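Memo to structure team: turn this sequence into structure tokens by end of day. - J.P.
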Amino acid sequence: MAPRFEPSRLIIFIVVFVDLLGFGIMIPMLPFFARNFGASAFEVGLLMFVYSLMQLLVSPIWGQISDRIGRRPVLLLTILGQALAFLWGGLSTTFISLLLSRVLSGVFAANISTASAYMADVTPPEERAKGMGLIGAAFGLGFIFGPAIGGILIPHGPEWPALAAAGICLLNFVLAFFVLPEPRIHPSLREANRRKLSWTGIKSSLKNPRFFRPMLSFFLITFAFVQLEITFGLFVLDRFKLHERDAGFLLAFLGVTMAVVQGLMMGPLTKKFSESVLIKVGAIFAIAGLGAAALSFSVWSLMIALIFIALGYSLMNPCLSAVTSKAAPAGQQGSVLGIFQSFGSFARVLAPLTAGFLYDFKMELPLFSALIVVGLMLAIWLRPSAGADFVEKV
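Reply from structure team:
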């Protein structure tokens, strides 16, 4: 019998997509907005640091609340909170006010983890990978269309992307309020479906070579990619004297390339090559792209570099997730992947300040730093280690 289609999956996909659309509009334009207040690159990094830190700290709290009172109330509250945070940011007239709006946005940014738990609630275990794939697709689409919309809006005023993001979040709140039901699931299962951040689990993963290598690698590539993400807008503005709109379109181009690679190429490639081979090849592509971007002399050469970066990241990211998932014991994939994602969260906390600090010294330094970090990740996979045979065979 064919699996029954669950309409709630489509609904939560739309809710996450609209939510990430607002995020994708705001984030690439944030450096330009902050520069209106005389912010340095380090202070731009500080805006993302406080956001990621609050998201990391508060996300488990929202998860526990959603276990007790349900996913729907938490999603509605956090979506509305994001709208208010974006509105605050758009109306800010000082850097401190903008910084506080990012703190508030980080507090309410836990709706993605709650949305993932919602998807787990409405998806049977045998279809869980497909359900989480929908969440990933919503992420990708939000980051494709968001920067392009932000780039179109910002010439009308640096506050417009933030105000548009607030409006989109308000529309999302109305959509979710009327069409998003509470999953009908026993409270004990609801709690079990939520990915938990466990310090004990993290310590045990660090001691287990089957988990340590892919999780550390995920931390490193996230750390590298966030450095690019934070400083990219400033880089194209300072190096090529482009407008903010052009930066948005270039980021959208990067997102489209990543979507094409992950959507059309990953299936055939994983049938022919092991994950470890694709991770190494992806690292080589990323290193070449980051180096080319740092040394780029024209917009066209930068676009070619972005293609290499997109190829590299699109090969590494899903393969690292797959290796981790396959190494997890039966019945523990959810908790292991939760720990895996926490490594990325830590990287998103640390990378913004590093990128901003380096950019203030020389604009190419964050790109070279990212190159070195990916090089370290490649060295990890080139070096034989305990558990490598297991990874190759799964």
